[in-house]
Specification:
- By secondary structure, the protein is α/β, with parallel strands linked by helices.
- Helices cover 42% and strands 12% of the residues.
- The protein has 16 helices and 13 strands.
- The strands form 3 sheets. The protein has an 8-stranded parallel β-sheet with strand order 10-9-8-5-4-13-12-11. A 3-stranded antiparallel β-sheet has the order 1-2-3, with no helix packed on it. A two-stranded antiparallel ribbon has the order 6-7.
- A hairpin with a 2-residue loop joins strand 6 and strand 7.
- The longest helix is centred in the last third of the chain and has 23 residues.
């Protein structure tokens, strides 16, 4: 998931030995200086204005994200690995390269992990114990993002086992003799584990960045917090256990940080009591996972809804055309929910397809664009996932290096420019005019 700064050049007048200016040379020097100031240094002056600009928090007004009072529609991406690669010097340049590349495409938001629990280069080594070296890596990611004009959606824990996840919390409680169950789903109902996670949340939100001195909860570089990546609690298909956990944790976050937006991180599946479980969910299994898009997203302390899109993982033996039809139906259904049920923005925080990538991206981008044109609840989409060259071992079947796929790269930039035309450019999109002129 370039540190840019302007230099102030201090010019000294050249004087003769008696302390007087040579009139002609002095006059010519002044003219040259003025010319350079207004022409050659134009970009530097622009950079100064950008550096002095007070970065604003993204807010919500009904179904819309807003930035400085104007609608804010998002074209962004996932690079879950930013903190992990910022730890070691040999891999840290990838963070700058990725954020710089995202900014070059006019992207405004990157979703990434703000956790690594008990794994290699763990941020949280054991409950309440942190590796300062890794915390400084997260500090670095936030500062790099701010320098590039990219905001961050920071996820706080994984439902999956990658990078520790909820299963690591369960193991910690079990080893310390306080765990109620060895089931991974005890993460959601065990009081000791809930306290572990609350301690983690408080430590993250109140962390003072060692590079800029700003506490995370006060830093507008952070677009929002995400409670958990793809929560499922299959041991309670009614959804009550997960719902109770979301209510408690979201209220706890808001008790510490009232400035940032908050989302759950659900995949978007409808629960068993929702009629859409039969008509919109990919298959019957999706309603038995203990999550419920409407119910989970309606909680007052949740500011916007999250949805994922993985048609080739969710279906068996469907053709590409059927995948794309499902994608459109899935997205329109959730945007409708944002309008009629939730009165909140809906962001598609992950989307991936292994085949026909350009058609897939275009389908998603078109739905978001049409929603934005009508000022509806479709607030944006984040591709899963973007990498830089030389990261094959961190790839899955969905990862791409965008600039190595010219047709996909073009689609991404077109979406940036279409959304900018609706909402107007934001100051952090420094190269937007040049980018969109090149597209034409």
């Amino acid at each position: 998931m370039i540190l840019r700064s302007s230099r102030l050049y201090k010019k000294k007048m050249v004087v003769a030995g008696n302390g007087l200016f040579y009139p002609i040379i002095g006059f010519a020097s002044c003219l040259a200086f003025l010319y350079m100031s207004f022409h050659s240094f134009g970009d530097l002056r622009s950079d100064f204005r950008e550096e002095e600009h007070q970065l604003a928090f993204v807010k919500r007004n009904g179904t819309q994200f807003t930035l400085e009072g104007k609608p804010f529609y998002i074209n962004g991406w996932n690079s879950y690995w930013l903190m992990y690669h910022a730890v070691d010097g040999y891999s840290r340049p990838r963070v700058r390269e990725m954020l710089q590349a995202g900014a070059k495409m006019g992207l405004t938001l990157c979703r990434t992990w703000a956790f690594n629990d008990g794994d290699y280069n763990a941020l949280q080594v054991s409950p309440g114990q942190f590796d300062e070296r890794v915390f400084k890596a997260l500090d670095h990611v936030i500062v790099e993002a701010r320098q590039q004009g990219v905001r961050l959606l920071l996820c706080l824990v994984n439902n999956l086992q990658n990078y520790g996840g909820k299963s690591q919390y369960v193991r910690w409680a079990w080893r310390e003799g306080v765990g109620l169950s060895s089931s991974n789903d005890s993460f959601f109902f065990d009081p000791s584990i809930r306290n572990y996670f609350k301690s983690y949340i408080k430590t993250i939100l109140t962390r003072k960045n060692t590079l800029n001195g700003i506490e995370y909860r006060d830093d507008p570089t952070i677009f929002a917090w995400e409670l958990i990546n793809e929560p499922r609690c299959s041991t309670d298909a009614s959804g009550d256990t997960l719902q109770d956990w979301i209510e408690e944790m979201s209220e706890f976050v808001k008790s510490i940080d009232k400035k940032h937006l908050l989302t759950v991180g659900v995949e978007g599946f409808y629960g068993p009591k929702n009629p859409k479980a039969l008509t919109v969910n990919p298959e019957q299994w999706a309603s038995r996972l203990g999550s419920d898009f409407i119910r989970n997203s309606k909680i007052p302390s949740i500011d916007f809804a999250s949805v994922h899109i993985y048609p080739d993982h969710w279906f068996h033996d469907l053709e590409v055309e059927d995948h794309l039809k499902f994608v459109t139906k899935w997205m329109l259904s959730h945007i409708e929910d944002g309008e009629k049920e939730l009165n909140k923005p809906v962001m598609f925080t992950e989307f991936g397809l292994a085949d026909q990538l350009d058609r897939f991206y275009k389908t998603i981008y078109d739905v978001i664009y049409k929603s934005a044109k009508k000022h509806q609840a479709g607030a944006g989409a984040l591709a899963w996932q973007f990498l830089v060259a030389g990261m094959d071992k961190y790839n899955d079947e969905f990862g791409i290096v965008p600039w190595e796929r010219p047709s996909t790269y073009k689609l991404i930039i077109e979406q940036t420019c279409r959304l900018a035309k609706i909402q107007g450019p934001i100051l952090e999109q420094r190269n937007l005019k040049e980018l969109c002129l090149q597209k034409q």
